[in-house]
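FYI - complex with alpha-L-arabinofuranose, inputs then prediction.
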Amino acid sequence: MTHPTRRAFMAATAAGAAGALFARHVPGVRAQTSDSRLEILVNEPIGTIAPDIYGHFVEHLGGVVYDGIWVGEDSKIPNVGGIRKALVDELRKIKPAVIRWPGGCFADSYDWRDGIGAAGNRPRRTDFWADTRPSLNRSPADGPQRFDPNRFGTNEFMRFCRLTGAAPYIAANVRSLPAKDFYQWVEYCNAPAGATTMSDLRVAGGDREPFGVRYWGVGNEPWGCGGNFTPEEYATEFRRYTAWVPKYGVDLKFIAAGPNGGDREWTTRFLRTLVARGAGALNGVYGWALHYYAGSTGDRNAIQFTTDDWYDLLTRADRMESLITQHWSAMAESDPSHKVKLLVDEWGAWHAGSIDMPPNYLWAYPGSLRDALVAALTLDTFNRHADKVAMANVAQLVNTIHSLFLAREDKFTVTPNFHVFAMYAAHQGKQSVRTAFSSPSIAFARDGRAQALWGLAGSASLREKELIVTVVNPHATDARECAIAVRGGAIRDGRATVLASTDLRAHNSFERPDALTPRDASVSARSGGLQHTFPAASVTRLQLTLA
Ligand code: AHR
């Protein structure tokens, strides 16, 4: 049901044509001409924003694990037991709730036993991604990115999680290992010291205390690299893998590998098969994990693109909104009470090639302001669907795809995506409340065809008197003058943090790590409302205190 104040606002904004200037008086906002309006409906809660929405993903792919995270205990690069210290220090700042590992496609080739025990005894294995750049030599000189030494295994991953304060989320191998290996991995992680041979092995690896891993992914992309299953076949595998798993007092949460983008049929057919023998099967599924990447087209790369490419990528990323609502309604067919939550355990902007990094560091590029806007509008989408989305994991943490960090030997920098995560961390655990934006939409062309993108979008969350509002202005050149009103409250004061640049391609590099960083800005609340200018091509966080 629509709240009456929201209904009135929607009717009023629908009456104004896009592009019109709002000269009407918004109660609580000084009379001034604005081209945009935002109403925050603090009495219309959506749901608590799960901190896990601000999750990460680490795969043995390119330079993510080796060099990105693991530098080795004997390295001259500052490290904590072999783990890159600068990465730990920066990651802690953004409160990483959860980290998914070891893949991705790599997960369904991975034998967890390879990554435990004395380092010198661990086998070297061909990485899943070894053939992705066939032009390389295929020699050991290609490094751990192609031939995995298994130096970073379960105990090392758990230490990384402990150091950063994140919960572990392990993706198990369904394509190439039997269910028994899955049970024993759980046993290795969670059985008490001295209880079983598996827990003895963990203790021998240096970890007496059980890891207490709650999140377990049952395979990855079973419609593709995870086994080329049909949804019916995967549903059968899922039931079998989760039929008996030792708990050791841990509230295990099984995650089923969901659709690729808009593949609604994968969702419908999996759940239909799962419940065919009784709806009770839904109790064994914590989450249904969607994957969606927004790609750049043609031969464009992460930092070379036109203004139309800018809008095109943002529009593609914005598809997350309809993917969530479409899959949510597809899930309702077999799960009308929505026991199973939606996860998006891989997302991000995926561009061609690598930039200024070794060729075996696949898809390693700095990420520009454009990617920061992708991150922001996607996180806003998750916040707005806090009642549906229980977890999301940006792909990937470091040196690959939509990364927050770039690392190469002793060089290290944060990317613009990191700054967005830092700004948005304030939403974690707060109550998402409805927002209603009205702003002139943007016209652009894709393949010569006219397209449109909204003028302003964002999300808001509330805890007691603290209201966090995040807003994306995607316009490449125009600032937006916005009248902001809080329905059901009044703004007392606040401050703003802004990530923006007049250069759409702005990005950080090892040489210029501070080329793009957020800046603080003041806001002037008057009579309970706010008039605020959102700069062109920007992400803004408003931290407001209500009266
Ligand atoms: O993140 C890179 C790859 O994208 C993952 O391994 C796979 O799950 C997805 O296709």
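The longest strand covers residues 36-48. The mean pLDDT is 92.
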